[in-house]
Model the fold of this input.
Amino acid sequence: MITELSGRALAMLRAVAAGRAELTCSCEPDLRVDGLPCCDQPAAHALARDGLIRAHDAVGAGQWTRAELTDDGLLALGLPRAC
Done:
């Protein structure tokens, strides 16, 4: 897991928490916020690889789906874990 998150990475997590983000189904998923591609895809890849965000639904390769925070993503934002 990432030990220190940049301000941009935290903003990406907040966008996911607010329901404003989508991911592609991929081993290195791309992120878009409010329908626009995220300006830092390497950071989006790291958030997914480090288990802070994930796709909400199982979709076909390359398709978009809503992004959601994992328990570790919630913890990174100081939010309570999901029950």
Notes: The chain has a mean pLDDT of 92. The longest strand covers residues 64-69.
